[in-house]
Amino acid sequence: MHPAAGAGIEGLLILQFPMADREDKNVENVPGKFYVDSQCIDCDLCRETAPNNFTRAEDEGYSYVFKQPETPEDLAQCREAMEGCPVEAIGEDGAE
Predict the structure, then answer these.
(1) End-to-end CA distance of the chain
(2) How far is CA 32 from CA 23, 67, 82, in A?
(3) DSSP collapsed to 3 states, 59-96
(4) Where are the chain's structural domains?
(5) 18-91 in CATH: which number?
(6) What pLDDT tens digit does each residue of the chain (96 aa) get?
(7) What pTM, to 2 d.p., does this model score?
(8) Burial of 77 by CB count in 10 Å (0-12 exposed, 13-18 middle, 19+ buried)?
């Protein structure tokens, strides 16, 4: 069994990815609580979900946080993007 896999309910295989690593943030992230790390696969989910906060590094092919959330709506969208990230590349444990 792959190290990132675990047995799920009734024997279903569940892949578990490591959480975002604040020590492995993409350099373009602005300082603050939210960030994207190097596991980003450029799927566009975060940019579609929270366009006021996430953008794409065109030359590098990944997302990063260009603006930390300032409103409750922005915060909710950033959390939704983090929860929906297929590789868990978005973290919320960066410096405030």
Answers:
(1) 39
(2) 13, 9, 15
(3) CCCEEEECCCCCCHHHHHHHHHHHHHCCCCCEECCCCC
(4) 18-91
(5) 3.30.70.20
(6) 444 445 445 666 655 556 899 899 999 999 999 999 999 999 999 999 999 999 999 999 999 999 999 999 999 999 999 999 999 999 998 776
(7) 0.79
(8) buried
